[in-house]
Amino acid sequence: MGERFDEKVVLITGGAGALARVTAQAFADLGATVVLAGRDGERLAEAAAGIRAEGSKIDWVTVDVADGDQVAAMVTEVVRRHGGLHIAFNNAGIFGKASPVGDLDEEVWRTVLDTNLTGMFLAMKHEISHMRANGGGVIVNMASNIGAHGRRAGMAAYAASKAAVSVLTQTAARDHIADGVRINAVSPGASDTPMSFRPGESRADRDARISTAVPAGRVSDPAEVAAAVVWLASDASSFVVGHDLVVDGGATA
Question: Could you tell me the pTM of the whole model?
Answer without folding.
Answer: 0.95
